[in-house]
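User: Please check C-alpha coordinate order:
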Amino acid sequence: MDLPAQAVERRLLGVNVCGTRLPSFKGQTVNHRAALALLMTLALSTAALAQEMAAPTYALGDRWTYRETDLLTKKETGRLTEFVTAADAAEYWMDSQRGSHTIWRGDSARLVHREQFLFDEAAPNKRGKTIATNDAGCVYPWPLKVGSRWACTEGVTFPNGWKLRYELKFSVVAAVNVETPAGRFDTLRLEAEGFATNDTNNTVSGHERVIWLAPAVRREVKHEIRTRLRNGQLFRVEGRELTEFKAGPGG
Protein backbone atom coordinates (compact mmCIF):
# COMPACT_ATOMS: atom_id res chain seq x y z
CA MET A 1 0.00 0.00 0.00
CA ASP A 2 1.39 3.43 -1.03
CA LEU A 3 2.06 5.96 1.69
CA PRO A 4 0.68 9.48 1.36
CA ALA A 5 3.18 11.87 -0.22
CA GLN A 6 3.53 13.92 2.97
CA ALA A 7 4.33 10.82 5.00
CA VAL A 8 6.98 9.72 2.52
CA GLU A 9 8.42 13.24 2.54
CA ARG A 10 8.60 13.37 6.33
CA ARG A 11 10.38 10.03 6.41
CA LEU A 12 12.90 10.99 3.74
CA LEU A 13 13.76 14.59 4.65
CA GLY A 14 16.92 14.78 6.68
CA VAL A 15 17.54 11.05 6.66
CA ASN A 16 21.18 9.96 6.43
CA VAL A 17 22.01 6.44 5.44
CA CYS A 18 25.62 5.29 5.36
CA GLY A 19 26.67 8.92 5.51
CA THR A 20 24.55 9.88 2.49
CA ARG A 21 21.88 12.54 2.89
CA LEU A 22 18.79 11.74 0.90
CA PRO A 23 17.51 14.40 -1.44
CA SER A 24 14.73 16.71 -0.35
CA PHE A 25 11.42 16.14 -2.11
CA LYS A 26 9.76 19.22 -0.63
CA GLY A 27 7.59 21.01 -3.16
CA GLN A 28 7.93 18.19 -5.68
CA THR A 29 5.67 15.38 -6.81
CA VAL A 30 6.84 12.24 -5.07
CA ASN A 31 6.97 8.86 -6.76
CA HIS A 32 6.25 6.82 -3.65
CA ARG A 33 7.59 3.55 -4.93
CA ALA A 34 10.79 5.16 -6.29
CA ALA A 35 11.37 7.05 -3.06
CA LEU A 36 10.91 3.95 -0.95
CA ALA A 37 13.11 1.96 -3.33
CA LEU A 38 15.86 4.56 -2.90
CA LEU A 39 15.56 4.36 0.86
CA MET A 40 15.71 0.56 0.79
CA THR A 41 18.69 0.57 -1.57
CA LEU A 42 20.66 2.85 0.73
CA ALA A 43 19.65 0.85 3.76
CA LEU A 44 20.78 -2.33 2.05
CA SER A 45 24.06 -0.59 1.18
CA THR A 46 24.59 -0.02 4.87
CA ALA A 47 23.77 -3.65 5.61
CA ALA A 48 26.13 -4.69 2.81
CA LEU A 49 29.09 -3.18 4.67
CA ALA A 50 31.02 -5.96 6.33
CA GLN A 51 29.45 -6.61 9.72
CA GLU A 52 32.34 -8.88 10.66
CA MET A 53 36.12 -8.76 10.35
CA ALA A 54 38.28 -11.86 10.52
CA ALA A 55 41.75 -11.72 11.99
CA PRO A 56 44.02 -10.31 9.29
CA THR A 57 47.43 -11.69 8.39
CA TYR A 58 50.38 -9.36 7.93
CA ALA A 59 52.56 -9.98 4.90
CA LEU A 60 56.22 -9.27 4.31
CA GLY A 61 56.53 -5.77 2.88
CA ASP A 62 53.19 -4.40 4.13
CA ARG A 63 53.68 -0.69 4.84
CA TRP A 64 51.48 1.89 6.58
CA THR A 65 52.04 5.62 6.99
CA TYR A 66 49.94 7.65 9.43
CA ARG A 67 49.57 11.33 10.23
CA GLU A 68 49.23 12.09 13.93
CA THR A 69 47.39 15.17 15.15
CA ASP A 70 46.54 16.98 18.37
CA LEU A 71 42.79 17.20 17.83
CA LEU A 72 42.45 19.99 20.40
CA THR A 73 44.85 22.34 18.60
CA LYS A 74 44.33 20.76 15.14
CA LYS A 75 48.12 20.72 14.71
CA GLU A 76 50.04 17.83 13.24
CA THR A 77 52.33 16.25 15.83
CA GLY A 78 54.18 13.74 13.70
CA ARG A 79 54.23 10.96 11.15
CA LEU A 80 54.47 7.24 11.77
CA THR A 81 55.61 4.68 9.21
CA GLU A 82 55.65 0.96 9.95
CA PHE A 83 56.53 -1.87 7.59
CA VAL A 84 56.72 -5.62 8.00
CA THR A 85 60.25 -7.04 7.73
CA ALA A 86 59.40 -10.61 8.73
CA ALA A 87 56.27 -12.61 9.54
CA ASP A 88 55.33 -16.18 10.34
CA ALA A 89 52.56 -17.93 12.24
CA ALA A 90 54.06 -17.05 15.63
CA GLU A 91 55.62 -13.60 15.29
CA TYR A 92 55.93 -10.58 13.05
CA TRP A 93 58.62 -7.91 13.02
CA MET A 94 58.07 -4.30 11.99
CA ASP A 95 60.42 -1.41 11.45
CA SER A 96 58.86 1.70 12.96
CA GLN A 97 59.85 5.29 12.28
CA ARG A 98 58.40 8.19 14.23
CA GLY A 99 61.24 10.63 14.72
CA SER A 100 63.53 7.81 15.86
CA HIS A 101 64.00 4.37 14.31
CA THR A 102 62.74 1.41 16.37
CA ILE A 103 61.77 -2.23 15.81
CA TRP A 104 58.62 -3.99 17.06
CA ARG A 105 58.19 -7.68 17.79
CA GLY A 106 54.55 -8.65 17.51
CA ASP A 107 52.33 -11.65 18.20
CA SER A 108 50.94 -12.94 14.89
CA ALA A 109 48.16 -14.98 16.47
CA ARG A 110 46.81 -12.12 18.59
CA LEU A 111 47.91 -9.26 16.29
CA VAL A 112 49.46 -7.01 18.89
CA HIS A 113 52.81 -5.25 19.21
CA ARG A 114 54.54 -6.84 22.23
CA GLU A 115 58.08 -5.48 22.53
CA GLN A 116 59.81 -2.41 21.08
CA PHE A 117 63.58 -2.21 20.55
CA LEU A 118 65.85 0.70 19.73
CA PHE A 119 67.39 0.31 16.29
CA ASP A 120 71.11 -0.37 16.74
CA GLU A 121 73.38 -1.11 13.79
CA ALA A 122 75.91 -2.84 16.04
CA ALA A 123 73.40 -5.10 17.84
CA PRO A 124 72.41 -8.61 16.74
CA ASN A 125 69.65 -8.28 14.13
CA LYS A 126 70.04 -4.50 14.72
CA ARG A 127 67.81 -4.80 17.79
CA GLY A 128 69.11 -2.72 20.66
CA LYS A 129 67.69 -2.45 24.16
CA THR A 130 63.99 -2.92 24.90
CA ILE A 131 62.24 0.41 25.43
CA ALA A 132 58.52 -0.54 25.52
CA THR A 133 56.35 -3.56 26.21
CA ASN A 134 52.67 -4.53 26.04
CA ASP A 135 51.26 -7.49 27.96
CA ALA A 136 48.54 -8.00 25.30
CA GLY A 137 45.73 -7.81 27.82
CA CYS A 138 43.41 -5.96 25.44
CA VAL A 139 43.87 -7.93 22.24
CA TYR A 140 40.80 -8.07 20.02
CA PRO A 141 38.67 -11.24 20.27
CA TRP A 142 38.74 -12.10 16.56
CA PRO A 143 36.59 -12.33 14.56
CA LEU A 144 35.09 -8.96 15.40
CA LYS A 145 31.37 -8.47 14.80
CA VAL A 146 29.05 -5.50 15.13
CA GLY A 147 27.56 -5.85 18.59
CA SER A 148 30.59 -7.57 20.13
CA ARG A 149 31.52 -6.40 23.64
CA TRP A 150 34.36 -7.27 26.00
CA ALA A 151 36.24 -5.93 29.00
CA CYS A 152 39.98 -6.07 29.48
CA THR A 153 42.98 -4.92 31.49
CA GLU A 154 46.25 -4.11 29.73
CA GLY A 155 49.68 -3.23 31.07
CA VAL A 156 52.00 -1.07 28.97
CA THR A 157 55.52 0.22 29.58
CA PHE A 158 56.41 3.30 27.53
CA PRO A 159 59.82 4.47 26.26
CA ASN A 160 59.87 7.24 28.90
CA GLY A 161 59.72 4.58 31.60
CA TRP A 162 56.11 5.11 32.61
CA LYS A 163 54.06 2.03 33.42
CA LEU A 164 50.34 2.34 32.70
CA ARG A 165 47.48 -0.02 33.35
CA TYR A 166 44.33 0.35 31.23
CA GLU A 167 40.95 -0.96 32.37
CA LEU A 168 38.60 -0.73 29.40
CA LYS A 169 35.23 -1.83 28.09
CA PHE A 170 35.14 -2.26 24.31
CA SER A 171 32.25 -2.51 21.88
CA VAL A 172 32.00 -2.84 18.10
CA VAL A 173 29.31 -0.24 17.45
CA ALA A 174 28.86 -0.10 13.67
CA ALA A 175 30.06 -0.87 10.18
CA VAL A 176 30.86 2.46 8.55
CA ASN A 177 32.58 3.87 5.49
CA VAL A 178 35.18 6.50 6.41
CA GLU A 179 37.30 9.00 4.51
CA THR A 180 41.04 9.26 5.16
CA PRO A 181 43.92 10.89 3.28
CA ALA A 182 44.65 7.40 1.93
CA GLY A 183 41.11 7.05 0.53
CA ARG A 184 37.72 5.71 1.61
CA PHE A 185 37.46 2.43 3.48
CA ASP A 186 34.77 0.12 4.79
CA THR A 187 35.48 -0.27 8.49
CA LEU A 188 34.27 -1.53 11.81
CA ARG A 189 34.04 1.26 14.39
CA LEU A 190 35.20 0.28 17.86
CA GLU A 191 34.68 2.34 20.99
CA ALA A 192 36.30 1.87 24.39
CA GLU A 193 35.86 3.64 27.71
CA GLY A 194 37.57 3.22 31.04
CA PHE A 195 40.53 4.35 33.06
CA ALA A 196 44.30 4.57 32.77
CA THR A 197 46.31 4.20 35.97
CA ASN A 198 49.87 5.49 35.85
CA ASP A 199 51.69 3.23 38.29
CA THR A 200 54.79 5.42 38.00
CA ASN A 201 53.28 8.62 39.39
CA ASN A 202 50.10 7.18 40.97
CA THR A 203 47.63 9.14 38.86
CA VAL A 204 44.35 7.99 37.33
CA SER A 205 42.71 9.48 34.26
CA GLY A 206 39.67 8.77 32.12
CA HIS A 207 40.52 7.00 28.89
CA GLU A 208 38.46 6.74 25.70
CA ARG A 209 39.27 5.26 22.31
CA VAL A 210 37.51 5.29 18.96
CA ILE A 211 39.12 3.03 16.37
CA TRP A 212 38.21 2.35 12.74
CA LEU A 213 39.50 -1.03 11.53
CA ALA A 214 39.60 -1.75 7.80
CA PRO A 215 40.01 -5.26 6.39
CA ALA A 216 41.47 -3.74 3.20
CA VAL A 217 44.58 -2.53 5.04
CA ARG A 218 44.63 -5.23 7.74
CA ARG A 219 44.55 -2.79 10.65
CA GLU A 220 43.22 0.60 11.73
CA VAL A 221 42.85 3.46 9.27
CA LYS A 222 41.97 5.99 11.95
CA HIS A 223 41.81 6.43 15.69
CA GLU A 224 41.07 9.03 18.34
CA ILE A 225 42.26 8.68 21.93
CA ARG A 226 40.89 10.99 24.61
CA THR A 227 42.36 11.51 28.07
CA ARG A 228 40.27 13.16 30.77
CA LEU A 229 41.22 14.50 34.19
CA ARG A 230 39.45 13.24 37.32
CA ASN A 231 36.93 16.09 37.03
CA GLY A 232 36.03 15.01 33.50
CA GLN A 233 37.85 17.84 31.78
CA LEU A 234 39.31 16.87 28.42
CA PHE A 235 43.08 16.94 28.73
CA ARG A 236 44.41 15.42 25.52
CA VAL A 237 42.97 14.18 22.22
CA GLU A 238 45.33 12.24 19.99
CA GLY A 239 44.32 11.57 16.41
CA ARG A 240 45.85 9.25 13.84
CA GLU A 241 44.77 8.64 10.25
CA LEU A 242 46.20 6.62 7.40
CA THR A 243 47.89 8.58 4.63
CA GLU A 244 49.27 5.64 2.63
CA PHE A 245 49.11 1.86 2.55
CA LYS A 246 51.15 -0.43 0.36
CA ALA A 247 50.55 -4.17 0.48
CA GLY A 248 53.60 -6.41 0.39
CA PRO A 249 54.18 -8.63 -2.62
CA GLY A 250 52.80 -11.59 -0.70
CA GLY A 251 49.73 -9.73 0.59
User: Anything to note?
Assistant: The helical segments are 5-12, 32-48. The two ends are 51 Å apart (CA to CA). Residues 32-48 form the longest helix (17 residues). Confidence is low (pLDDT under 50) at residues 1-30, 41-47.
